[in-house]
Amino acid sequence: MTIKAQLSTFVQETLANGVRDLRIDEDTRLIEHGLIDSIGLMELMDFIEQETGIRVPDEEVHPGNFQTVANMEAMIERLRREP
Amino acid sequence: MSYLLWQVVSEGASRHPTRAAVSWRDLVLSYAELDEASTRLAHSLAQAGIGPGARVGLYLPKSHKAVISMIAALKAGAAYVPIDPHAPASRAAYILRDCAVRVLVTTPELAAQLEPEIPALDALQTIYLTECSQTLSSPDSVSVRQWSELAAFPATPVESRTIESDPAYLLYTSGSTGRPKGVVLTHRNALTFVDWAVAAFRLEPDDRMSSHAPLHSDLSIFDVFGALRAGACVALVPEDISPFPGTLAEWIHRERITVWYSVPSALIRLSVHGRLERWTFDTLRAVLFAGEVFALKHLRQLMDQLPHAELYNLYGPTETNVCTYHRVTRPLGDISSLSIGRACENTEVFALDEGGAPIEAGQEGELFVRGPTVMAGYWGDQSKTEMALGRNPLQPAYSELAYRTGDIVRLEQDGTYTFLGRRDHMVKSRGYRIELGEVEHVLHAHDAVREAVVVATPDDEIGARLSAVVAAHEATTVSARALQAFCATRLPRHMVPETIVFRDALPLTSTGKADRIALTAMFANSLEHVGS
Description:
A: about 80 residues, B: about 525 residues, alpha/beta, Rossmann fold, five-stranded mixed β-sheet
């Protein structure tokens, strides 16, 4: 499974759990849907670290990198290239 | 002379109508605008049958409309009931049913979440949507109103028939028997605290106070009503910024915040991950925190990062507002835990030993609170109210109530108190109260669960982490992930156990109860070896 698919599944099952009729795709605006609170953000960062080995550095932790699954994937790819 | 919470707005509007009252994103509401908008909504609420003795539910993210709705409910004579917009719809519905909310203010998205629950909300008559939407299908008994209709209502003052001992708001906290309980606080409860806070922290019209805590947390009373009482401006932290420490730090700098108030875990995230060295925060004169123990290593770091800010540790359960406070001294010195200080003005605290006698300096006991900030009771629960709010044992001559906190404290030689722990199974995580029994109750509701015990492991950053030990029924299989998902549809996220492990049976004490001490020790010693 690609990291994009893994992230979508994680967000769907963990963060969007219980939110009726919301299907997460790579462009779903997660913050606007209220899915990312401080607990959700920590869970996401732990998940990214567990799956990719990348600990997201503090300067990358801003809404632009976490608004959508596609944003997260782009950030991960960039961090992979420039460790 | 009446003493009502909404008067902070109408008085502000007559004294300084153009001054900024509420700031949210790019929008600034003056005192006159806040007064007018809340009055129009209050008239509309009155037309919808809201008056003294009613409750208005607020199930929406923080915004200027949420603040307008709080004030409007009060002006209409009702108590407002703020509900966590991140809580599952089933929990929101429980609260709405429990206190028979007649009018609900919400967003179209949250209303859609709540839709399946609406037919069972017998008391609900009207839903106000803060944004336009045509999609909500509600039963015929519930009418839907749009925010845009409010302009048609008058801006003339609403006639008030409320008195200061009437409820102003209900705050729901975790309940040990499996359901949240509604703490009823009156106008006098809130204003006594607000007036103390304005004086104690010298809140001034020039202040820009942050509102970081959600509106269903009692910290919001200081942020919103403290600011409005002082003629200051309350700047609402947008919910999309709040989780991101670096972005939040930039917001504090850009908004020129002068007084910050939050739970310690939010400050710790700012301190550790907010890259505070980017700014000097020279406007930030006071940093207040409450809700949980601040780990000293993190407090020391924050003090170094904010060398010119005064820091205050505020203490008090939701049931009493803030009842003690302590100004943190610089340097912190060689202390083992942070003092909760002494009682706020017009409040008394005392501690009793197990035999009910007042403790002396150096001794430990349970803290009691008496005074005008102590709640009226728990909504619809006389027996819980009587257990918590008993006759003051130190006043035999007449009947006076004192609130029994359940917190164990030590009285120091200088008359201040130090918090030591709880006498029951309530823990604090991210500043939220969590009754472990409420989480266990939800786990037990799952078909596969035979026994479940939830334990809390202390954590320097967030206070406590929850873990559950579960014994499943024979011949059933259930995964930790599935149980967590089950919990997440019934509990707010901060109450869902981070780790769930399975055992054939739970260790028992000699009296046959689950051995919490052994289970807590198991997690404390081997969390890293236990899969989730």
